[in-house]
Design goal:
The protein is 60% helix and 8% strand. It is mainly α. Strand 1 (101-102) and strand 2 (105-109) form a beta hairpin.
Length: 117
């Protein structure tokens, strides 16, 4: 089952990137924007509870899809791009085993523990 879930996330990652290609963004801009959601980890400087909240906010696929939807409804490409970037990035993270964080530690995710036990 774990492999199937990773394949599903990989497909969502690829689909998000495919849709992003339609915006014809230069790669030098797309690459740093793709990793921008990881700035949410800076919240861990204020402790694990704040860090989990900031990290998760930028990695929830529901928020990404809401941004995409708002962009489509109001014809705002910036929201469409932000939503697709968040969605693709979150799928990429899940393929690598980085899930949404619990408030006790960065390593404790909805996909299990990160790192050595």
């Amino acid at each position: 089952m774990r492999i199937v879930l990773k394949l599903e996330e990989a497909a969502m990652f690829a689909f998000g990137l495919f849709l992003l290609m339609g915006f014809h963004l230069p790669w030098w801009l797309l690459l740093p924007l793709f990793f921008a959601p990881d700035l949410g980890a800076l919240g861990y400087l204020a402790g694990p509870r704040v860090g989990a909240a900031t990290y998760n906010t930028l990695h929830y696929k529901g928020i990404a899809l809401a941004l995409l939807g708002l962009g489509l409804i109001f014809h705002q490409p910036i929201f469409q791009i932000a939503g697709l970037l968040m969605f693709s990035h979150s799928s990429f993270d899940r393929v690598l085993g980085f899930g949404l964080k619990f408030a006790d530690s960065f390593q404790n995710t909805h996909l299990g523990k990160i790192g050595k036990s």
